[in-house]
């Protein structure tokens, strides 16, 4: 038994070893035979099979000879020959990013075909993907040539017209099928014989749109396109006015910008409501992108069907610089055009002449509340086929409100809801008018419901009462389902949203301050000082004192300001200076008053001081005179408050809000210090500052010193009709009005969509203009009051004055130095001693006389001048000579 098991083990080992040798032999044999006979594939296969069978018989005989028992060798031979077909895809991208839907569909289709061997059991489809810039046709041509040199059976894409035409030209020249999933204008001479498109024919699409226009009975249609290809795709519709009673208007989207708002506004103004948009894929919706991916998936399967129907196709290297087409190209493109496939986009059949898709179905979809809904189909043979219940079925938006009667709660507030003035008695909804009544009427017209308007019982909007923890006003009625809608100036707030639902806002606004216009004040007794600010008056006084002192000092130091009081006696040694301290002040006053004085400066330095002072006074007096008339004649409007901060800083003017309103809730919940301070003030005087409604607040503003905090839209309405009232400051917060509904009401979304429709149509704005526009008040002449001139207005004149004074000082120093040099040369002494003598004479402030320099050779006596006069003095060294 052990010997038999041992022999059996060796036998199995020998079998395994022999099988391994046979496999190696088969591999090397096939390799060398293929090298020896590259064109005799059948001969090589026969030799391989014969050699393998001989080896098999030898192993069987040797095993049976060694072992007496019957041993079977279960060995099977599977001949499986796999063919590889290469395809190539070109996909466009403006920027580098993740793969697009078409590229993913391309990969998925190829991988599905290769994994599922039912379609191509003996063939593997390989692919290569290249991404190019959407506008670079040269790059597309270059990459197409590179790939064709490696050998491909078909090219998919690109979709952009310029790149697609370049690749299509190469494919036509080299006989390689070009598969497209996007629309491309097909020329009539069939030059693109190797072109196949899964996109529906533009003529069929145009006929489908025309059938829809007929079905909806449109008599005026506007076509909006973004490039010239849109006009080609809509040829049937463009020809319709000549055959049907249709008014057609064609508009083009602006090419330089993607902003279509000006065009849409122009269409709205022209009342063009039936619009057909033919836009590029970049502007299409996401569902169209999914359609492109489905077309790519079907395109790959059509090529796979053509491969399956072909006998044997081998790819070869093709060169763009040699016009040598692929020998299997004509046969392969013919198979593609003859192929048919039930794919994701329906039945795929092609026109064998131009390669366009012929058998397809178009779905007519409509936007409903729950999303897109299919309402019909269109196909080339039978045309448009709408669903049976489409004509009688209204949209989902109106299903739940049509022919229903709703209870509407509101409140009397101008101009939202008011009693209609009439000589005849009115009943029901006819009693009311206003903005909210018009809004309710428009909503009823869109949604098809009936309504009954009721005034809220307690006359309040709705707030949470702290004492009871219960809501009041219209909010209470919605909570108790006493009302289905609350159409009023009801602000959307966080606390209200927790207990009721709101539609989208139909009006946005904010809180502001209503106050009386200030009374004008007449000019006062001392209003002549108002043209210049107090700072300027102080600076003018300081400038006057400074200039007078500088003039006095420079006049004392400048030798040229000293003159001979006796011009008839040129040899007189007495000189005189008129610019005493008092005279200097008098000179400044005379120039400031533009009256002048008898004193005239003689030296250059003193003349500079005088000239600069005259220029300064010229500007000051001119500015003062120009501003004086306005301050003396205009009544100035002075308001005690200009903003909420001013209101919070004082306690003289009382201010308040409507009790239990949204404005009170804002101040109550605010965390801003200014508004919190205002709430503490109002809450501490609650009984005296809070009002029941808006009318009471307006009357209190008119009759007392009271500021009313309320919504800006109501302030705008009131100030248009009462010229004694005005708005103070800007908006304190931002809020919006919405239609209130009970929590979880099915009507909210319907009301919201209808409000958005009214907003897009501009009806909300028109209703506001209707009810807010009043007779108007004359514009406030706020700009009549001329503001006081400050430093920033005429401060430059002081800079000029200071610069002139500094210049005069330097000139005076130069004059002293120059005169000292002259005296030193005349008296034959040193420059320093002459300058010291000159300064010594100038510093004797008690006298206005100083010694006149004389040459040393002059020795005659001079008569003594009267030393008791203030204007003269005797020169030293002058004695009577014999």
TrEMBL record:
Q: From the record, give the transmembrane residue ranges.
A: 12-33, 45-66, 73-91, 536-555, 612-634, 794-818
Q: Which residues form the Ionotropic glutamate receptor L-glutamate and glycine-binding domain?
A: 415-480
Q: Does the keyword Chloroplast apply?
A: no
Site (Crucial to convey clamshell closure to channel opening) found at: 641
Q: Which SMART domains match?
A: Lig_chan-Glu_bd, PBPe
Q: Where does L-glutamate bind?
A: 489, 496, 663, 711
- The reply on keyword Protein transport is no
GO MF entries: ligand-gated monoatomic ion channel activity; signaling receptor activity
Its Gene Ontology cellular component terms are:
postsynaptic membrane
- Cross-referenced InterPro entries, in alphabetical order? ANF_lig-bd_rcpt, Glu/Gly-bd, Iono_Glu_rcpt_met, Ionotropic_Glu_rcpt, Iontro_rcpt_C, Peripla_BP_I
Provide the disulphide bond pattern: 145-320, 723-777
Q: Where is this site: Interaction with the cone snail toxin Con-ikot-ikot?
A: 668
Subcellular location, in the record's words?
Postsynaptic cell membrane
> What keywords sit in the KW lines?
Cell membrane, Disulfide bond, Glycoprotein, Ion channel, Ion transport, Ligand-gated ion channel, Membrane, Postsynaptic cell membrane, Receptor, Synapse, Transmembrane, Transmembrane helix, Transport
Give the UniProt family note: Belongs to the glutamate-gated ion channel (TC 1.A.10.1) family. GRIK2 subfamily.
Q: How does it assemble?
A: Homotetramer and heterotetramer with GRIK5. Tetramers may be formed by the dimerization of dimers.
What exactly does this protein do?
Ionotropic glutamate receptor that functions as a cation-permeable ligand-gated ion channel, gated by L-glutamate and the glutamatergic agonist kainic acid. L-glutamate acts as an excitatory neurotransmitter at many synapses in the central nervous system. Binding of the excitatory neurotransmitter L-glutamate induces a conformation change, leading to the opening of the cation channel, and thereby converts the chemical signal to an electrical impulse. The receptor then desensitizes rapidly and enters a transient inactive state, characterized by the presence of bound agonist.
Protein known as? Glutamate receptor
Q: Source organism lineage?
A: Eukaryota, Metazoa, Chordata, Craniata, Vertebrata
